[in-house]
Amino acid sequence: MKNITLLIIVLSLTISCKKEYKPRETVTISIEKFKFENSSIRAIEIINDSSIAYVGSIGDMGIITDGGKLKSIQKIVTDTIIPHFRALAATTNKLFALSVGNPALLYKYQNNTLDIVYKEEHDKVFYDSMKFFDEQNGIAIGDPTGDCLSIIITKDGGNTWRKIACGSLPKIAKGEAAFAASNTNIAIVGENAWVVTGGLKSRVYHTSDMGLTWKVYNTPIIQGKNTTGIYTVDFYNQNQGIICGGDYTDKYGNYANKAITSDGGKTWKVVSENIPPHYVSCVQYVPNTEGKEVFAVSTNGIFYSNNSGETWRKVSDEGFYTIRFASSATAWVSGNEVIAKMKIY
Question: Is 9 domain-assigned?
Fold first, then answer.
């Protein structure tokens, strides 16, 4: 009994003495740019410590090394169609690229072989974002072709995909859709996924079972026009998350374009209202910072928060579409005709 009591005391002291992460008060960054002629690049993914994958608007797919060298590249043309890519996902040994527009074409790249694993033809088809829960289970989302969002899932590592019937999804509101701004309409933690929308209605859809069942929650983010709403989402854990957006046609407007949640997306609180950053196309938590450090990017610049998004500081005037972190000290960003490595100090 004494030994058990002593063990409990030791464990309690260990837990209570664990140091809370102290976020960096300020950061500076350096940016090393790599030029990509004629390609608008809105989707990048970290492959490992020394390379990333990207897809662009001219049917281009590639892997870039730490020094900016193209390790492999594909220029894709299918039946004279040059796919415009804005969605990219990666598993251990596969890349997946999903095109916008009609027809939607989903490509799997593995062992230097490229295959189409999903095709959808519809006047309204437009896929915005894609992500994997694990090696076998993935999800992609797009604008409605019926009275629900377009959601396709895979259960076999991306070899086959199926579209979820509208009868199994929440109904969309009039004028509700999604934005293909940065491949971050989806955030995943474990078996949970959060999908964000915009337009006349801007909401958060949540599944806790990898797409089998869904709930939908209202948000205070600006909405009411085709160009307003949530453009990006990230979750640090099952409870803490952040959404950002605004109005793409009013990039310096700043009304209700950032909000945070502490209850898994059920309720949201607007933060930094009428304070930069203005329109945001991508927001991401910095890894290993306990959800305290966050970066946001847009064509207006790069912004940093050290208090979970409550307040922000501008750290660069350089404009980009999206950002991904390799570590707390290194990130990659991309934009129009550019991919860049960003060091954080």
Answer: no
Give the DSSP H or E segment for 229: strand 228-235
- Position 50 confidence tier, pLDDT thresholds 50, 70, 90: confident
Number of domains the chain is built from:
1
Which stretches within 233-344 are classed as H helix?
none
Q: How far apart are CA 330 and CA 326, in angstroms?
A: 6
> Which residues contact residue 126 at a Cβ distance below 8 angstroms, ignoring those fewer than 6 apart?
100, 101, 102, 104, 142, 143, 150, 177, 180
Q: What is the pTM of this model?
A: 0.93
Tokens of 47: 């492959």
SS3 14: helix
**Nearest partner of 91 among 50, 140, 138, 54, judged by Cα:** 138
Spatial separation of the C-alpha atoms in residues 195 and 175, rounded to whole Å: 16
- Which residue in 151, 131, 155 sits closest to 143, CA to CA? 151
Of all residues in the chain, what percent are helix, strand and coil, respectively (each to 5)? 5, 45, 50
d(CA 323, CA 297): 7
pLDDT digits (tens, 9 = 90+) for 112-130: 899 999 999 999 999 999 9
- What CATH number does the domain containing 67 carry? 2.130.10.10
Handedness of CA 311, 315, 319, 324 (dihedral sign): negative
Residue 85: give the domain boundaries.
22-344
